[in-house]
Amino acid sequence: MKRYDIPEGSLEKVTKDKIKKFFADNGIWYKMPQPGVFGANNGTSDFQALHKGVFIAVEAKRNSPSAKTTAHQTEYLAKVNTNGGLGMVVSCESHIFALRDALVKRGVLDV
């Protein structure tokens, strides 16, 4: 199994790099939407991906207990999940494995 180590205290950039690696390793197409001016894309996740018909939204956070989602980010992820997509927060390697497991469970990713 591939590793995606994100040491505790790592900056959000480290988390984003590991998510990009995970997506690349699994052939998952993604984009990183640019934040809009004056909150135009307020709450939109850092990553929007599509894999075999499943929309995936991932909010990256630094690996720290103090790293929290905003209310807008939480609402966005909830809407994705309510509408059949997969939305989650990733801040450590175990979250990447949870993302992998959720995609395997949906039958769109092989183990």
Q: What does the model show?
A:
- The protein has 111 residues and is an alpha+beta fold.
- It has one domain: Trna Endonuclease, Chain: A, domain 1, CATH 3.40.1350.
- The protein contains three helices and four strands.
- It has helices at 12-25, 71-82, 93-105, and strands at residues 29-31, 47-51, 54-60, 86-90.
- A four-stranded mixed β-sheet has the order 1-2-3-4, sandwiched between helices.
- Helix 2 links the parallel strand 3 (54-60) and strand 4.
- The chain is globular.
Largest β sheet strand count, sense and barrel closure: 4 strands, mixed
Give the quaternary arrangement of the chains: single chain
- The strands making up the biggest β-sheet line up spatially as 1-2-3-4
Count the domains. 1
- Mean pLDDT equals 94
Distance between the termini: 9 Å
Helix share of residues? Answer: 25-40%
- Radius of gyration, taken over Cα atoms and rounded to an integer in Å: 13 Å
